[in-house]
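[Solved] Which block belongs to which protein?

Original post:
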Amino acid sequence: MRFLPALLTAAALLVGVAAPASAALVSTTMNGVEIGSHHYNVTFWQEGNDTTFNQVFGTGFPGFIFTDETEAGDAAQIILNTANSTGFDVTPGSNTAGQNGFVLAFGSTADLYSAYTGWLDTPGNSFQGLFGPFNDQNRTASNVLSFAILERADVTPVPEPGSALLMGVALGAAALARRRRAA
C-alpha cells in the first residue's frame, strides 16, 4: 500500500510533462465553417506585426488537409465569404499595415510554404478578395496577416496520451493494491 502514493505522484508528474506548451500567439476562432461535406473550426493566429509560418506551425510539416491549389483556393474563398457575411475579424493581433486578412497555407517543404491570402475590408478601402496561390514563401519571413488553421469540428476527439497514461497507472496501482491485500 505504501507504493500507491508514489505511483500516483509519478503519474501526475508524467501528465504534467505530457501537457503541451502554449504559444504566445493571439488567436480568434470562427466555429462550424462548412467546407465541402465537413465542418471546421477555423482559428486565426497572429503574433504582433511579424508572424511567421514557423511561429504558428513549428519547424516540422503540419498535416495540411488540401491536396492541391484548387482545394486550398476553394477553402480560402469559403472562409473569406463566411468572415465577410458574419463580420468576423480574421486578424486578431495588431497590424501595422492596417490590413484585415489571413493566410491559408496549403503546401510545405523544408524551407518554404504556399498560401492563399484572403483580404477583408481595410481602413479607407472597401476591396475584398482572394489572392493566390503564393508559392515559395519563406517559412521564417514575417507576415502582417494571421494564419488560418483548420480543425475538423465533426470528428470525435481522441483521448490525449497523458490521460491514457494516467488511467493506466491508476488501474495498475489498483491492481497492485488488490494483490497486496489478498496476500
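(Second protein starts here: sequence line, then its C-alpha cells.)
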Amino acid sequence: MPSYLQAPVFFGLIAAFVTTIGLVIVAQRAPWTERNASIFGLAAAGMLATLAFLHIIPEAFHLSRQAPIWLATGFFGGLLLHNAVALLFPERPGRKPVNVAFTPIIAIAFHSFIDGIIYSVTFANSFESGVYASLGLILHEFPEGVIAFAIMKRAGVSNMKSFWIAFLAAAATTPAGALVSAPIMFMLEQETLGALFAMSAGLLLFVATGPLMAPLKETKPARGLGAVGAGVFAAMLIFLAPIHSGHNHAMDTLHDHDHDHAPSADQPDFSQM
C-alpha cells in the first residue's frame, strides 16, 4: 500500500471498528433495540442536530464562503430525496414506508464518507494533524452504528439486514472515503471541503428535524423530550471533550495548508494569463 494511504486508511479502519462495536452491542439486544427504536431515533435527532450546529456548520463556514448555499442545498436535497423515495415506494398496509429509513441512512453514509476524506486531507498536511482529527472524529463513531441500526429496526427491517446496512452506511464508508480521496487529496481545496461539510450538515439537519423527530408526536412528552435531551447532552460531551479541540486545530492547519498553495510574491501567477 502506498505510504500516503497507510495512515488515513488505518485510522479509517479504526473508526469502522469502533462503529462495528456499537452495532454488535445493539444487534445482540435486537428485540430491546426494536422496542425502543423510536427513542433511539429521537436521541439521534438531538445528537445530530447539536453536532451540526456546534461543529459541522461552523467548520463549513470557516472553510467556504459558499457554505450557506450548500447548507440549504443539503437540507432541501434531503427533503426532495425523502419525498422522491416515498413516491417511488408508496406505503402499503402493514408495511412501514421505505423513506423512514432510507433518507437517514443516506445522510449517515454521506457524512461518514466525508469523515474519511477529512482523514486523508489532514494526514496530507501533517501526521500530528491527522491523528488529532482522527481521534476527534472517532469519538462519535460508536453512537453512529447504534443510530443506524436503530433506524433500520424502526423501519421493520430484519436483524441481519439491519446490521449489514448499518455497517455499510456507518462503518465501511469512513475507510472508503479515505481510500478514494487520498490519491487526489492535493486537489481538494478548502472551499470544496467546506461545501461538502455544509451539504452534510444540511442533510443531517433535515433528517434530525424531519424523519428522526417524527416519533415525538406519538411518544409521551416526558419520554420523547427526555430522549432528545439525552442526545443533545451526548453531543455536548463529544463537543467539549479535550481531544475535540485537537480536531479544530487540525482543520485550522488545513486552512493554512491551502494558503501554502497560493503563488508567493516571487512566483508568477500563471492563472491570470
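Accepted answer:
You had them paired correctly. Confirming on the second one: The two ends are 39 Å apart (CA to CA).
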